[in-house]
Write a structure and sequence with these properties.
The protein is 31% helix and 19% strand. Strand 5 and strand 6 form a beta hairpin. The radius of gyration is 20 Å and the shape is globular. 54% of the residues are buried.
Amino acid sequence: MNTGMVYFADLRTSVKRNLFDKIDELLNCIGMGKMFKKGQLVAVKLHFGEKGNTSFINPIFAARVVDGISSTGALPFLTDTSTLYIGTRANAVSHLKTAVENGFGYSTVKAPVIIADGLRGDDGEHVEVNGRHLKEVKIARAISEAHGLVALTHFKCHEMTGIGGALKNIGMGCAAREGKLTQHSKCAPLVDPGSCTACGVCALNCPADAIDVGAVAVINDGSCIGCGYCIAVCPEAAIKIQWNESTINLQEKMAEHAYGALKGKKGKCAFLSFVMHVSPECDCYGHSDAAIVPDVGILASTDPVAIDQAAADLVNARQGIPGTALGPDKDALKPGSDKFKRLHPDVDWTVQLRHAEELGLGSRRYELKEVF
């Protein structure tokens, strides 16, 4: 089995060498200068953070990566996809507004922001993957059509996948609405009869004619194709996803979507993980709880599996911070303890790594080389 190369920079700096210099060196180590050609469109995939969240990647770090891509003559754009849940990133308009408010304006990042799956999250392309669960996945069109992809990931804990790393960033984050729904649910969305006004907007917009409207809207589970468009168009937010998929199947479907997002981009994908403010939950919340371990550093690799394994190992090797979500148990704080399992005991976060490795996305075995 191959061993993935992962490069690591700690957060120590001096008057002669700052963090931007270290980011430049990390990009050099993974061969960024030769990865792209002039005029190629490069998706820089990251999470802009929900409004009220403060643990997302600092925009000035994203700007430095954009500089590195632009130096090759390629054309980078910052991107993410809209969410299934109703929040400040559920459609392209509010998503762009949130991105700018969180600091990702052109004047800072020096690249345009494009919401990859269109106005309502349904603009995508089906990509064949032939996975254990899915034969094809729906990937956001702007990402699917890009020549290359650079994933900037805020590495953290996650309540449904244990860890939120590069695989989640590209697997969940590059999926169009249909792909997200497929990962999270085994059946059709559910109508809340207390909120539904029977306006009929969902039925008019359903591409499968799977919705009947009487006193309230009713979705036919047998006809529903799982696109999630009804969730996006409902003016009353009365249609909900049924969060009923197991954490094992969710992670494996997520890995299969990651495979689809990277398909056709061999040699043109890179991953940087910022293991800083390792929060106990996802950046999709409108708040950020205290970090569970001291800041670790920045990782870079061309292997999304190796970089996630390395990031998780580095976090677990740290002493936990007392008074955080890890709780008062001294064993949970010890170096070497599985802090992700402590926070989310029902989730085996290694599932996504094992399945991604089986799909050929990378290797859990890695060599860690420090950049000074």
